[in-house]
Amino acid sequence: MRNTTNAVNLQPVRASTCVMAAATVLERMTMATAEEIAAEEFASVVARHRPQIFRFLLASTRDVDLAETLTQDCFLKAHRNWSSFRGESSALTWLMRIAINLQKDHWRNRRMQFWRHTQNNAVGLDEASEWLPSGERSVEQQLLARERVRQVSKAVQGLSERQRTVFLLRYVEESELSEIALATGLSEGTVKAHLSRAVARVRAALGGKR
Amino acid sequence: MIFKDKFVGNMQNPEQDSELNKALKDFRLSVHAWSDAAFSRPRTAIAAVAPKRIWRLAVGCALGCVLVAGGASVGLWQHHQREIELRITQARIAEQQRLAALQAQQDDEDLLAKVDSDVSREVPIAMEPLAQLMAEDETP
Asked: Where do the H-state alpha helices sit in chain A?
């Protein structure tokens, strides 16, 4: 009689254990699948936006090695915080914000202060202008265009860090003002003000030459 | 033109703004071209290979050092053992020589003693009567 009771009582226990085990396995499989999906998503984001992040950092630092290092750091940081990305802005804007912060941290780092003064690895102003595609211009037009690019580069180099960031995001990355505001953490009005001052300085640099 | 639409500035002078737009466009094109070239440049994966090579070198150096140290210590130990054996042999030879010398000295002394005793027993003829007297006096 006792045996029968035990047998009857054991059945539900075993069934519940099996259900719990199955649920755990399913949960683990779901988690693994979710992680795989997240990894795939992140890989596609990296493939899509890495050139843009690198370009922005290269234009800001004018140093290929430094831009590569900061790009790597940017995606490493993004990978660590990928789960916290809620899609409130586009992935590019989010990445751009990380890149801007990394760049700021880099320049603020006391150990790297001498870079600001020496900038041994940073290329000269002529370097960027030499990459200008010739298109269908005459030699004279090409020379004039290169000279213009050189002047703009010089003017951009002379801008404050914030003005330069806003200017590059607008005129190199062709970002919208709202995106720039999100990436920099500034209001749209402040972005417009910085942009206006930056453009005025570039205009002055171009105008002064003529 | 998209780029021109994005321009934010005061339209002070149409000619100057057109020049500015051209300059900004060229600047953008040059940065894009420079970035594309830098991004797609071939890269050498030295960093990935270097640690392995360094580890191999370090392990090789360590093994080499161990072998050299082992060889040197074995050589020193053998040399030390040989010196000890040589000293023992020399000491043994010296002991044997000392014993031989002692033996020779002892033999000489024995021989001299024997000679003395032999010589002392032979009394010259001239002294025979005196010797007999002495012998008689000694008897009770």
From this structure: 2-61, 64-80, 91-108, 113-118, 125-130, 139-157, 161-171, 177-184, 188-209
Inter-chain touch A58–B37, beta carbons under 8 Å? no
A58/B2 CB distance under 8 A: no
Whole-angstrom distance, CA of residue A26 vs CA of residue A16: 15
Quote the radius of gyration of chain B (alpha carbons, Å): 58
CB A194 within 8 A of CB A163: yes
User: What does the pLDDT look like over B74-83, one tens digit per residue?
Assistant: 999 999 999 9
Instruction: Decide if B26 touches A, using CB distance below 8 A.
Output: yes
Among B34, B32, B39, smallest CA distance to B3 is for B32
Answering whether pTM is above 0.90, one says no
The backbone torsions φ and ψ at residue A62, rounded to the nearest 5 degrees and listed phi first, read: 60, 30
Burial category of A22 from C-beta neighbours within 10 Å (exposed 0-12, middle 13-18, buried 19 and up): exposed
Q: How many Å lie between the alpha carbon of B37 and the closest alpha carbon of chain A?
A: 9
Closest CB to B29: pick one of A127, A132, A192: A132
Residue A187's contacts (CB-CB under 8 Å, 6 or more residues apart) are A181
Whether residue A203 and residue B37 make contact (CB cut-off 8 A), yes or no, is no
Per-residue pLDDT of chain A (210 residues), as tens digits, is: 444 444 445 555 566 777 777 777 767 767 677 777 778 888 888 899 999 999 999 998 888 888 999 999 999 999 998 888 877 788 899 999 999 999 888 877 755 565 555 555 556 555 667 777 777 677 888 888 888 888 898 899 889 989 999 999 999 999 999 999 999 999 999 999 999 999 999 999 888 544
* Residues 6+ away with beta carbon under 8 Å from B1: B21
Q: Which residues contact A194 (CB under 8 A, 6 or more apart)?
A: A162, A163, A166, A167, A186
Secondary structure (3-state) at A46: helix
Burial class (CB in 10 A: 0-12, 13-18, 19+), A181: buried
Tell me, yes or no, if B4 comes closer than 8 A to chain A by beta carbon.
Answer: no
